[in-house]
Amino acid sequence: MKAKKMMALLLTAAMGMSALTGCGGGNGKESEEGKGADKKGKDVVTALLPPVSATYQDKITEYVKAFNEEHPDVEIEVTTASWEDTTQKLDVQVNAGSPPDIAFIGSDGVTKYLDMGMAVDISQYLSEEQMKDFDENVLGYFKNGDGLYGLPAYCEVQCIGGNREFLEKAGIDWKSVQQNGWTYDEFREAIKKGVVEENGATKTYGFLFACSGVTAKDYFSIFVKNAGFPSPFNEDLKYTYTDPKMVDFLEDLRAMIDDGSMPKELGAIDAGKRWNMMLTGQTMITGKGLSSFERSAANNNEMLKNGDADAVEGSIPVDYIVLPVPVFEGGTQNAYGAVDGYICLTGEKKPDEEHLKNVAEAAYYLASAERAAETCQELYLKPICESGRTAYEALPPIENKNEDNTKTVESLTKQIVPARPDIPAELGAKAIKIEDEVIVPKFQGLLAGEVTPEEMHQAIVDAAKEVFGEDGYVAE
Questions:
Q1: Does residue 49 contact residue 78 with C-beta atoms inside 8 Å?
Q2: How far apart are alpha carbons 442 and 14 in whole angstroms?
Q3: 57: nearest Cα among 28, 27, 85, 78
């Protein structure tokens, strides 16, 4: 382990977490050699899992119980946490050199843990049939070089979404936008039309985006795909965000705030407030947008209809419409695909081969068949593994699904930027470091009007020069 990890161990060793044991108990104690057996002699596989869908953390108990019954010598032991707490707890455990065997993360984090020496190549522990179960293009997001370090749970297009009534009042042909997309200039003019002023104050914004907490980088990361930056690295493995055209992109993002189409306090809007503002009619279009928001809006509509006190206070009926991200000058139509799933990890105590095989088996179980089908249906997504699609067909169909949204998501899924397993883990980890330490804080400053586009770009250039060297980034 690196020296900084050993220092972190001293600071974080006392920090622990409670675990939800799937079935029949077992304390998951580790042996001197590494991961070991519990009191009943079972091999314990630990997993840290966020609320992947609305009922995922409720269902995980029965999923784990079934696995443990089918594998009498293995016990999956699960810890559940919120999305933000999952990230924090994982960082604590990683820094302490004792991560869980399985953690649910975004695939863009694979290179980070691979560079730290903690990601496990599970390709050698899975059968050919298990590997072929997954769509190859999506599986590639958990690959690096020749290694496979986890399994995808779903592929979610992260885009934007609007209130149908407000879109139509503003004269926006949303069906045409779904089918043909729109340019930045068209989008900018559209959201201006969505602004509603009342008594000298803005009652409804044309557009807003969650930019606080775990969503701090989403606005930048999702939109940049359509601005000529499909990846932080080009095919020559040079860092791309230093390109001078980044300044134009940042100016465009800031302009929508200056127009009055977006709230000035974007940096203070988290995911919960973003959705609350959508349901209470405070914005025409919101981001990031997910397929499952259609269901969330429909559920709240039903509660309003029935006079249910659980409906969002002050909310109005919302017919949620999936919309693509606009294309900026010099960019092409791409989609940001959030491929999340189960990464397999190991710590300072190296486990034996039998344990690693059990970890891979547990990861495959969680990512496939009924588990994949039920999770994806709740997220309004189609499974990305054959066993999941088979199980999906046996589920009761979704009632009152907006087919225009379904077709749009399917179309955008085909536009997702291909995986880049060719990017070495070391480079990927360095890009993540620049993102966390430079891009996110500078972008927050840009949104607040404290940093100019030129200043943010220069900060990225300075960081890239230091991290990648003079020849490691795009200068023109």
A1: yes
A2: 33
A3: 78
Question: Nearest CA to 322 among 208, 181, 445, 197?
Answer: 181
Please state at what angle helix 245-258 crosses helix 184-193, rounded to 10 degrees: 10
324 Cβ neighbours under 8 A, 6+ residues apart: 159, 160, 177, 178, 181, 182, 333, 335, 408, 412
Q: How far is CA 262 from CA 165, 249, 361, 442, 443, in A?
A: 19, 16, 47, 19, 16
Residue 203 in 3-state DSSP? strand
Q: Could you say which architecture CATH assigns to the domain 157-336+421-468?
A: 3-Layer(aba) Sandwich (3.40)
Q: Which residues pair with 74 in a beta bridge?
A: 43
Q: Which two tokens stand for residue 415?
A: 């536009």
Distance CA 360, CA 119 (A): 12
For residue 192 the two structure tokens come to: 């201006």
- Residue at token pair 């914005």: 283
Name all contacts of 363-366 with Cβ < 8 Å and 24+ positions apart. Answer: 363/102, 363/122, 363/150, 363/151, 364/126, 364/130, 364/133, 364/151, 365/63, 365/67, 366/47, 366/63, 366/102, 366/151, 366/153, 366/342
Comma-separated ranges of CATH 3.40.190.10 domains in the chain: 18-24+38-154+339-413, 157-336+421-468
Return the pLDDT at 431.
Answer: 96
Burial class (CB in 10 A: 0-12, 13-18, 19+), 156: buried
φ, ψ at 73 (rounded to 5°): -100, 0
pTM tops 0.90, yes or no: no
Q: Which backbone phi and psi does 183 adopt, to 5 degrees?
A: -85, 165
| Neighbouring residues of 57: CB distance < 8 A, sequence distance ≥ 6 | 49, 50, 51, 80
The DSSP bridge pattern shows strands 201-209 and 283-289 to be parallel
Would you call the peptide bond into 288 cis, given omega within 30 degrees of 0 as the criterion?
yes
What would the pLDDT profile of 436-472 be if each residue is shown by its tens digit?
999 999 999 999 999 999 999 999 999 999 999 999 9
Strand stretches in 299-360, DSSP E? 320-323, 336-344
- For 46, half-sphere exposure in the C-beta direction (CA atoms, 13 angstrom radius) is 25
At 166, the amino acid letter reads F
pLDDT in tens, 383-432: 999 999 999 999 999 988 999 999 999 999 889 999 999 999 999 999 99
**The domain 18-24+38-154+339-413 is classified under which CATH number: 3.40.50.880, 3.40.50.1010, 3.40.190.10, 3.40.30.120?**
3.40.190.10
